[in-house]
Amino acid sequence: MVIHGFEIGEYPVHNARLWKAKTGKTLKHSIFEFYSKLYHAQNRTVYIGDESLLSQKVKETFIATIWCFQTITLLWIPQLAIKNWAENRTIWEIIGFLRLDNISSELGITFEYFYLSIIMIFIIVLCIIVLILLDYLSQNIPNLVISALRWIFDLWKTAFLTPSLTLYSVFLKYNFSSKGHISAYKNNNDPADFELNAAWQFVIILTMTLIFVLIISYEEFIGEIRHSVSIKVLKAKAHSKVDVHIAIFMYFSPILYAITNEDFMVYFQLFMMIVSLILIAEIMIFLPYFSLCYCFIKILGLFAIALVSFGFILGYLMDNSLVIILVAIILGPFLAFFALQFTLKLQNKLSVNVPETLSGIESAYQLEKSLRCSLCSNDAEHKEQIINLYEAFFNKAGSLKNKLQLIWAANYCLFTLKDESLAKVKLSRIKNILEWNLEADFQEYLINNTIQDSLSSESSRFISYLQQLHLIKTSDINLCINLLKFWEEITSSKPDLDRLTKRLTWISKKMQLLANKYSQLITKFIDCREFLSLYASFMKDIILDRDKANFLGNKLKTFNADIMNSGPSQLSCFDDLSAILIISVEEDSFGQILFSNKKAKDVMKFNSPSIDGSNIMSFIPSYYCEKLKDYAIGYSHFCFSSEIDLNGGFFLELPSEYLIECTGKASITTIENFLVFILIFKQSQKKNKIALLSENGEILCYSKYFAEMAGKENNNLIGCNIKNIFNETEQYLANNGTTSESRLICSSIHACNIEIFYAAFISGCEEIQRWENKSSEWLPDKKRKNKKTSHDSLDLLVHEYPNKGIKNEYEGKVSFNSEMNLKSGKNKIHEITEKRFSENFSEEKSESWQNKKLINLVASSSRKINILHAAFILSVKNI
């Protein structure tokens, strides 16, 4: 299973929402969802304040009282072979009062019809639930109704089950008895005979059998539901096992009672007491996986049965029925209170039972298994126990690796919790504990890690920069974990170069996103240019000294698949929809296409069945070959992924200064002598009609949808002029350029100077002058002779940029020359950019939402916007 982008273990994770009934789903799915909601209705209770907690306590007390009272109804039947039972009139009057005989007699309800009415209630409630279940197929049931149904079913198994089974045992006893009647005590103390024919016996036995089957099926079905839908597997098995055992015991004990001779009745009661104690012990074994309410009710009821049996044995031996009443009524509540306290103590002890040693995946598994019983509890008193559990794990975790796995387990359980608000309450303090401890440990790890011994001093400085990056947001667990795994892979004896490269790609993207989000990050570095220089040295130490042939052989042919299988989840978008093109930038083989997948051939429409091994220069006019080489050489000295986010999409500069608009993402990554272009297309019904044009209107490359739109899908359009394909091109663009479903993008190739392009990125607006003095350090020798100054580059950017209207509109207003102050020129470029966009876009009411996004980009950047963004904005405007 993959959590946060890396493999943790083989644990089945199923979310309950996966079973949510949707349109067209089968009845089975609807039943699964219904029972899942029915069972977990109580667990969704959030204890906020004393009122909700008091309500829960009232419910527990109410159900427990009914259970205890109805269990004592075993004493209602005079046929229990207790001597002098009917003679003790006071006892019968007490029981009759508890039984509400006065009310029943006034209503004309006799003893037998009282029990028959209970059976009818059973059947009626069952029919109501069936009707609601059928209605659930068309609409969802509110949580309040689900909770009410859960209460009703709890009352089934507590208040109604025991007296119904008691009546069932009486009927069976009558069937095996030589007597032809059943005597029952009434308020008037006149015994009555109740004749029961064979038809009534058959109906009652069939009804009770059906009820028993439903109870067993419910418990087993819920156990299966919890096993499939919820992560609480152990809790599900424990619940199902204990509930089924109790149901079997409650069903077959009346049968044994019915067929037991009066001489052996004491042995039957001994059997009842022993089985009750065994079931109590079974509940104690699975105690950590039960809620407090469940334990209290079950243990209390089983204690009551054991006490009644024990009292019967004592009364039989002592020939005194008063002992039964004393044991069952007086001593019972004290023992029940003792059982409750014992349950709480034992549950608290088991909840924080932490292993002494935690290592590797096993520690995360043990933590997750312990969290099942704590995080899934619906009792408010367990909140402090959960915090104690985490603190105990944290104290014994030891290494940073185990603490990171502790964080993973917290997130893992957070995802499995059904109640998000409860999760926030329980995990709020945990988050603080993690951050307090992890921040110091992470600093120590970065300082003392052995990787710095095998790297250059510049790479060690880069690691310290990463430390500063991490401290900006200590809760960024994904970056922390991936960095940790990245370093562990490097220091291993046989590092996996593929995994290193893929993790490196993700880390670099993550760092760029953090750098954009936290502007104060730049102030922590000496300057951006030095940071990127150290980054390049770090990459060289780690990757570039490896065997390049082995790198190509293992990586290029499986680039797309490996990213999906072992890369972080954030790179899962690299699938069959990704167009990947890897180009060599070595001096001897510059431009050679080392790898291209099927999507790349399809999207770029290369005029070759197999472009691997050929040179990309053959597909690009010679005018742009030098520009591509300048671009690639400059790029290879700074190993980073370039992504520019506009309008929720990305604009990729490929291969030099012309833009392609994609439906998803686009990025460029260089690893020394390899220039990697990656186009990531999202699943979309939109079919982009893209054509890249030269300044003369010649088509350099195009998408197949562009050819289909032009009706030239069987022709090679490379080198053709756009005017020869479409008549009245400007009118076509005016009619179709803004539609999302049918869009033609005709982009002019610009000659934006590569120096100013990189000056803006490397140094930012504040560092152009510093870059001018040092830019020759990374430019090729043959380019240094003809290297233009930054002033010329700025002049080229504003005045020679082939954007309609820019040169004429601002000619005379802005002039860059060698005598102009560079800082003043920098401010001018911002003024031009902002004024240009505000004048052209802000007042247009019918503008597209893409243009609004561009306005926001310029406005948010304000004076801090760098020339790189300005260049891209002007290029986008030109489209």
UniProtKB/TrEMBL annotation:
TM helices/strands, residue ranges: 113-137, 149-171, 198-221, 242-260, 266-287, 299-317, 323-344
Keyword Transmembrane helix attributed: yes
Keywords, ordered alphabetically: Membrane, Transmembrane, Transmembrane helix
Annotated TmcB/TmcC TPR repeats domain residues: 461-553
InterPro entries: Tiny_macrocysts_regulators, TPR_TmcB/C
Keyword Transcription: no
Protein name: TmcB/TmcC TPR repeats domain-containing protein
Species the sequence originates in: Blepharisma stoltei
Organism classification: Eukaryota, Sar, Alveolata, Ciliophora, Postciliodesmatophora
